[in-house]
Amino acid sequence: MIGPLIAAHYIGKKPWGMSALFFVIILVIGLILSAFLGTYLIVNIIIGAIVFLAVAWFYLKIHPLPIGILMYIVSIIINIIISYVLAFVAGWSIPI
Questions:
Q1: Which of 53, 54, 74, 89 is 20 to 30 A distant from 23 in Cα terms?
Q2: Which long-range contacts (CB under 8 A, 24 or more apart) does 78-87 make?
């Protein structure tokens, strides 16, 4: 989902290009890690948070840690909202 892109632009105050590259880095690392970790939800959330904060720290130069944590929380909330909207749209588009 595009939560990290929006969070990096609006919370991290970074330009769209840098935010898009941040999103791609998080996406690729997430795809690689999900192949190895499987479906352990809590482990994936913890490792995902660590990876998100590490990439935000080193790539985006988000140095106050609370801003990085706020970016992570906002990106999760945005992703949840997007998934609910998509589920709502998919539920109404089923032919009877």
A1: 89
A2: 78/1, 78/2, 78/3, 78/6, 78/7, 79/1, 79/2, 79/3, 82/1, 82/2, 82/3, 83/1
Question: How much is the pTM?
Answer: 0.84
DSSP state of 14: -
Each residue's pLDDT tens digit, 15-50:
999 999 999 999 999 889 888 887 788 888 899 899
Residue given tokens 């809590």 in the structure block: 42
- Domain spans of the chain, in order of start: 3-92
Question: Taken in order 57, 63, 11, 85, is the CA torsion positive or negative?
Answer: positive
Sequence letter at residue 19? S
Using alpha carbons only, how large is the chain's radius of gyration in Å?
Answer: 15
